[in-house]
Design a protein that fits this description.
Strand content: 35-45%
Radius of gyration: 15 Å
Largest sheet: 7 strands, antiparallel
Structural class: alpha+beta
Number of strands: 7
Number of helices: 4
Amino acid sequence: MTIDVSAERVIPLPPARVAAYAMDWRHDPEWTQGIRVAQLTREADEGGFGVGAEVTRTAYFLGRRIDYVMRVLEYEPPRLLEMGSVAGPMPMHVTYTFEPDPRGTLARIRVRGGGGGFYRLAAPLLARQVGSSIGKDLRDLGHRLGTREGDGL
């Protein structure tokens, strides 16, 4: 993969509460940088959201509109959500983990991606931008859940 970046933050709330909000695709535009629209476009085989479900997202990144589809590969609430792109400008793999911490929840996001053309040439810039974005995502996740600035540091 061309990029592999991660960010983590302690959010002073129980893992079940943090994960319930973060793993609900309907909240993606509220706390995830650049995402303007998210919609469930394929349900899991057993219905609803779970392994096999697909979420179509429209985002803006580096001044470009990006439409992509993420398929749920692993879903183990409240601990793990792993998604991989099945349509979009480049292969992408996103992993969200939520672990108990003495101060609340240790929330992590890891993004791996690659591809050719523009994305291969822009990999160093892309990695920095993605790293910054997912750090802000975790900050905004805490804010959305009602924690104060400075909590979770």
